[in-house]
Amino acid sequence: MRNAQRGRPPVEPIYTLQDAAACMTLFRALEYGAWTTVADGLRARFWNAGHLLGSASVELEIDRRDAPLRIMFSGDIGPGHKLLQTDPEGPAGVDYLICESTYGDRDRPDVSPEERRTQLGDIVRGAAEAGGPLIIPSFAVERTQELLVDLYLLMQAGQVPSAPVFVDSPLATRASAIFERHAKEIEQGDVLRQALNSKELRFTETVEQSKAINRLSGFFVVIAASGMCDAGRIRHHLKANLWRRNATVMMAGYQAQGSLGRILLDGAQRVRIQGEEVDVKARISLFELYSGHADASELVAWLKARTPVRQRVFLTHGEDAGLGGLRGRLAGLIPHDKIIIPRLDDAFQLTPSGSLVVELNEPRRLKSEKIAHLDWHNDLARLLLDVNQAVRAAADERGRAAIIRRVRRALENKDA
């Protein structure tokens, strides 16, 4: 509908609501550690990945003439001693291992839960002293629930002022209900249940309830998705509060290159949200002590526990620094020639005796340099801000006209 209004051709969806509904009928619950037959000659076993509620690494066993072929997919590996989750697990002695590398190039500070809450308390008290809201962009599943536990404990202990805590995300609300149902099965489930039923906590459902939050004054906390600020209700909370000097925005986790969250952390003085320019006067901070991903040392420890890997280790799911950093840290543990960092559209034939590269018969979908490029929507938003700022800063109408002419010439130069 939106494209039609703008005179653009419609986009054919890769799947529809009906496809999703049909897919949901195929789900069934399985226990960790139990083999299940997926198809003739193919079995799967799921291991707790420690990433979030229900997350799993997947071990496949494929029947072969001589011996079964075993392949392990890490999925997202959680850190050790994570709030709400037990440590990640997995088998040893597989033929091939595909492993994530999100934080393959860095280690987080080794802090206890008490130290984490102390540092979070500093930010919360600072926001309260500023007299404005604390806005927390957050992933709806796991991160929101971790924040709620820590905020609850801080307020209960009197370490921060008690204040309304709004969870403004329908998905986070539904996820929290699932966490509460499974409280007996997760770490610190009793505390989580108390946090989810505290008098300070308010879940909002409707758009009207969400908008009403921004008519409040004074100190309160808003937790809303998405965690990187590129979608969801967090966008209108940022739009309503970034220009306020008494507002505080705390990023509660990783912000990908090109995301609005990363742009704010990089010090942008003005951003575009929902088509409007917004000055950034609020205090912006990054709180990195929550993570759903193992850091470099934890990834190496998890990989070491999976050895020996008889054939190859494939490193995936990371930016170049994470991929290269993890590969370097594995020196001495896994031979260099056994570690592969595949590119988009690479294909491999996996056999018990080794892997073979499958030659592509068609061009790659994306060039390597484009894969890590800034998201073009945010890139365009920054360009429009720069153009607007330059035009406004021009000394007179003549100067403004000259800037506009140069931009127009650049757009007309198709070879540029």
Describe the protein.
The protein is α/β, with parallel strands linked by helices. It has three domains: 31-107 and 293-358, 4-Layer Sandwich (Metallo-beta-lactamase, Chain A); 113-286, Rossmann fold (3-Layer(aba) Sandwich); 376-412, no CATH class. The protein is built from 14 helices and 17 strands. The strands form four sheets. It has a seven-stranded mixed sheet, covered by helices on one side. Strand 2 (42-48) and strand 3 form a beta hairpin. Helix 3 crosses helix 4. The model has no long low-confidence stretch (mean pLDDT 92).
Number of beta strands: 17
Q: Tell me about the largest β-sheet.
A: 7 strands, mixed
Number of helical elements: 14
Radius of gyration: 25 Å
CATH first level of the largest domain: Alpha Beta
Low-pLDDT residue spans: none
| Share of residues in strands | 15-25%
CATH topology tier name of the largest domain: Rossmann fold
Helical content stands at 25-40%
Give the helices and strands, then pairings.
Blueprint: H1 2-5, H2 17-24, E1 35-39, E2 42-48, E3 56-62, E4 69-73, E5 96-100, H3 113-130, E6 134-137, H4 143-156, E7 165-167, H5 170-181, H6 189-196, E8 201-203, H7 207-213, E9 221-224, H8 234-241, E10 248-251, H9 260-265, E11 270-273, E12 276-279, E13 283-286, H10 296-306, E14 312-316, H11 320-329, E15 339-340, E16 347-351, E17 354-358, H12 368-371, H13 376-393, H14 397-412
Parallel strand pairs: 4-5, 5-14, 6-9, 6-10, 7-8, 7-9, 10-13, 14-15
Antiparallel strand pairs: 1-2, 2-3, 3-4, 11-12, 16-17
Helix pairs in contact: 3-4, 4-6, 10-11, 13-14
